[in-house]
Amino acid sequence: MIFCRHLNQFDVVNDADLDKILCYPNPLSQECSKRLEEVKSLGIKAIFNYGSIKIGKLSVIGKGHAGIVTLAYHNLYGYVALKIRRIDSKRDSLRQEALIMKLAEDVNGIPRVYDYTDNFIVREYIDGYILRDYISNNIDSQRLRILLISLIELFYKLDIRGIDVEEIRNPLKQIVVRCDDPRNVYIIDLESARIRKNSNNLPRVLSFILNGKIGDKYVYEIIDLGYNHRKTLLLYATMYKRGSNEERREMANRIIDVILGQ
User: Fold this and answer.
1) With a threshold of 0.70, does the pTM exceed it?
2) What topology does CATH give the domain 11-124?
3) Which of 46, 69, 128, 251 is 20 to 30 A off residue 23, Cα-Cα?
4) Cβ atoms of 56 and 20 closer than 8 Å
5) CA distance 170 to 187
6) To 10 degrees, what angle do helices 245-259 and 227-242 make?
7) Where is the Protein kinase domain (predicted)?
8) pLDDT tens, the chain, 262 aa long
């Protein structure tokens, strides 16, 4: 585990408050004692009060419709991210998300999964800023071009594996830039991912490039994409959707050339 930022010493969530994390948002649930034993059996030694998202007086690093994510300590892997299924989640298990992540574990940009159950996923913790915060602080065109190319490569590889991530239409909260490096991007939430024969993540990234905004500017304005270049990207997106795996690689390369201004 590598921490890229200077972080203060973490406070451990005490036993009295663990139910507020493990059984969010109903710490009085009868399931809490079972979950405490379950998380211990996974090798979790401590859960930390850390992150930018508040649950009452406690802090976590992520919160969504199906679960919350905390920083934790594992007896083998050290610092890890622990995803916890919410008590009120409509999903009855986190296993599908974990299995999809393991299916793509050879892809640079997918956190490694160490263990999982219906209620928990123990995975690699990716230290960095979510895309929205990163690009707000690093808005120069060159770094943004590098980052967009990294996203194109990542989601092309997921497309080839048939892993479809609909929520990537707006990647600002789904992507973490590790260690301030635009070449080192990770998708941290595959909650909505599905296995599909014709996965089309890369065109969604192009939609973000052509329609997304950073502050009061469109992404394409920051990287100086003129009308003809944008029209070419739309054509390549259509060809990509219809193409074989080999043709998709060629279209991905052409898209990268356009982003680079070639």
Assistant:
1) yes
2) Phosphorylase Kinase; domain 1 (3.30.200)
3) 128
4) yes
5) 12
6) 170
7) 55-262
8) 667 765 556 799 999 999 999 999 999 989 999 999 999 999 999 999 999 999 999 999 999 989 999 999 999 999 999 999 999 999 999 999 999 999 998 999 999 999 999 999 999 999 999 998 888 876 789 999 999 999 999 999 999 999 999 878 788 888 999 988 999 999 998 988 999 988 999 999 999 999 998 888 899 999 999 999 999 999 999 999 999 999 999 999 999 999 998 7
Domain ranges of the chain: 11-124, 128-259
